[in-house]
Amino acid sequence: MTRFLAQYGSQIATLTMEHLWLTSAAMLFAAAIAIPAGIALTRSPGWARPVIGVANVLQTIPSLAMFGFLLPLPWFGERAARIAIVALTAYALLPILRNTYAGIRGIDPAVLEVARALGLTGRQRLFKVELPLAASFILAGLRTATVTCVGIATIAAAVGAGGLGELIFRGVASVDNRLVLAGAIPAALLALAADGILGILEKLTTVKR
Amino acid sequence: MSAAIEFRDVSFATREGRPILDSISLALEEGSVTAVLGRSGCGKTTLLRTVNRMIEATQGEVLVRGESVASTDLIALRRSMGYVIQETGLFPHFTVERNVGLVLEAQGRPRDERQARSRELLHSVGLAPDAFSRRYPHQLSGGQRQRVGLGRALAADPPILLMDEPFGALDPLTRAEMQDMLQGLLARLRKTVLLVTHDLDEALYLADRIALLHEGRLVAHVPPEEFVRSAHPKVRAYIGAFHRGERSREAQR
After folding, report:
1. What is the pLDDT of residue B127?
2. Residue B1 has pLDDT above 70, yes or no
3. Cβ proximity of B77 and B52 under 8 Å
4. What pLDDT score was predicted for residue B123?
5. A110 vs B91: CB contact, 8 Å cut-off?
6. How does pLDDT run across B28-54, given as a tens digit for each residue?
7. Contact call for A128 and B102, based on CB within 8 A
8. In chain A, what residues touch B153 (CB-CB under 8 Å)?
9. ipTM score here?
């Protein structure tokens, strides 16, 4: 055990950091796309079904196939990390989009009405009322998306994007369970940590009524 | 002198063409309290909402101090009138103090001014500022919430107050306390009030004029004393719907 750690320890650390970087980059992109899109959908709810439908379809694409699809594309295919980040972003869109939309739509209509009637501008209503009241929902979406992406990111190693999946794939190829676990355990811990931290944030932003 | 609020031949129909308001003409004097009575669905809330353009009249015009609301800047228009509704619509994520000061916050006024004003208003709606400033809406009773809602409506000292069934959800004792508090406040502040209610007693107690709407039409607009004596069948029917228990007991005696 100690010998194994001495041999692979620094590699596990590097790959964990890589894993973390792939996932966080994807989450940032996904949030930057899905939160504004979710807000926009609340302004024109007619679009909600088709747009959320598309995000839904993206989510049903098997992850290995998704990485494979992106491989031959010109700019993306050049760097494996790009492929991984794009694919992970695609998976993360749905939960964030859906929760942003549902969170804002779920606000007590009387509160929104008063916000309008008191003369708050559209921007003030968004930042002072709608986003704070929907924050816990949006964070719940981010949390689901993050946990899913930490898992899916292990498959990114299949296209050479690195991350903890590399150890898992090598372990499977060389029939070495220690290597499989060396990838799987840190990945599981990452998922648990993300779940815990975002869960706390979610609780902090929950508004009692 | 121009009226504080004037409805000129105001009609409103839904997009499907269902008429809600049918050529209403009505003038509210500066500093007066006008109660609008009528059964649910008669258009009273719609009428109130045309004043701050939460609803745009499909015909006719609404004038506030002689100016058509349609040509007034929407945000400025809404900030010039307080708005109180039955569900209060308090912001659940803000403290009582911030709820009350929100209009001033939206206007970009400095924090200490907002705090001072908020304390002053809590005091005038009968809530001890030290005990209530830091609380959140879910920590208040229905009556206390309604008081905060009223304080918030008064924050920017608007000349007009629009009140839609403000005390409709309260028990009779709390409602009576609120009516007294409002009456006291109005005696001091002199606001033009448009009060939508279906409580005849509340209208008689608080209003200088009573308007009765029936199926989108104005059937009466008179002082309370005249309202109770009116021979108009719709007014008689409305008044007849109250105190039925008392009357039936008296008849048995």
Report:
1. 95
2. no
3. yes
4. 94
5. no
6. 999 999 999 999 889 999 999 999 999
7. yes
8. 118
9. 0.89
Structure tokens at A18: 């890589």
Predicted confidence at residue B87, as pLDDT, reads: 87
Domain ranges within chain A, ordered by starting residue: 2-205
pLDDT digits (tens, 9 = 90+) for A79-98: 788 889 999 999 999 999 99
A116 contacts chain B (CB < 8 A): yes
Nearest residue, CB atoms, B78 vs list A110, A111, A119: A119
What DSSP state is assigned to residue B168?
A: T
What spatial distance separates the first Cα and last Cα of chain A, rounded to whole Å?
52
* B55: nearest CA partner in chain A: A117
Q: How far apart are CA A166 and CA A176, in angstroms?
A: 13
Assigned CATH topology for domain A2-205: MetI-like fold (1.10.3720)
Size of interface A-B (CB pairs under 8 A): 66
Question: What average pLDDT does this structure show over B216-225?
Answer: 94
CA distance B37 to B50: 16
The nearest alpha carbon in chain A to B99 belongs to A115
pLDDT mean across residues, chain B:
94
CB contact A36 to B (< 8 Å): no
Q: Which amino acid is at A51?
A: V
Return the CATH number of the domain spanning residue range B5-80+159-252: 3.40.50.300
Neighbours of A80 (CB within 10 A): 21
What's the CA angle centered on A29, arms A158 and A42, to 5 degrees? Answer: 130
The answer to whether B83 contacts A207, with C-beta atoms less than 8 Å apart, is no
Q: Which residues contact B241 (CB under 8 A, 6 or more apart)?
A: B200
Task: Kindly list the residues from chain A whose CB atom is less than 8 angstroms away from the CB atom of residue B93.
Answer: 132-133, 207
- Measure CB to CB from residue A117 to each of B52, B91, B93 and give the nearest one: B52
Q: Distance between CA atoms of A125 and B56, rounded to whole angstroms? A: 21
B75 with A207: Cβ contact below 8 A: no
Whether residue A78 has pLDDT greater than 80? no
Paired sense of beta strands B59-64 and B160-164, if any:
unpaired
In angstroms, the Cα distances linking B57 to A38, A55, B70, B249 are 32, 40, 9, 45
Would the pLDDT of B218 be above 90? yes
CB contact under 8 A, B138 and A118: no
Question: pLDDT category, A8, cuts 50, 70, 90?
Answer: confident
CA distances from B165 to A57, A129, B83, B199, B202 (A): 47, 24, 11, 9, 10
The answer to whether the CB atoms of B85 and A114 lie below 8 A apart is yes
Q: Where are the domains of chain B?
A: 5-80+159-252
